[in-house]
Amino acid sequence: MDAVMTLSPLATRIESALDSDLNHPWCVHRLYERLGPVVDLSARETLLETTQRAAEELVRTGRARREYVSAIAIGVHCEDSVFWSVDAKRECLAEFGPEYEAPTILNRMASHFQCHGL
Known about the structure:
This protein is α+β, with helices and mostly antiparallel strands. The chain has one domain (9-112): Arc Repressor Mutant, subunit A, CATH 1.10.10. The chain is built from 4 helices and 3 strands. It has helices at residues 9-20, 28-35, 44-60, 104-108; strands spanning 26-27, 64-73, 76-85. Helix 1 packs across helix 3 and helix 2 (28-35) crosses helix 3. The radius of gyration is 15 Å and the shape is globular. The termini are far apart. The mean pLDDT is 82.
C-alpha cells in the first residue's frame, strides 16, 4: 500500500489557489501576496522562501508544474519560479500564451521591484 504524502498547510492552500485559476500560472510573489500572512517587510524574503518551498512540495508530489524565469532589469537580477496546476494541461510556461513568452514575461518581472526610498 502506497503511503499518502501529507502536504504542509501552506502547500495545501497553494494547491487550492493553483486549481482555482487554470488559465494563469502563479509566480512565487503572487502566491506570497495572496496567501502569506501580513507581516513587516523585514520578514519578506524569508516568507518568499517559505512560499517557494511549499509550492515545490506540489511539484515533488506531481500536483503542480514549475518553470524558472530569470531576467536582468535596471541593473538588478531577478529570479522567480512560476507554478501551475497539472490540471491546466500545459507542460511549459509559453503554452499559457504570448504574455508568458519571452521577452514579455521578462519585462513583466520588473513589477516585482519595490522602491523604499533613497
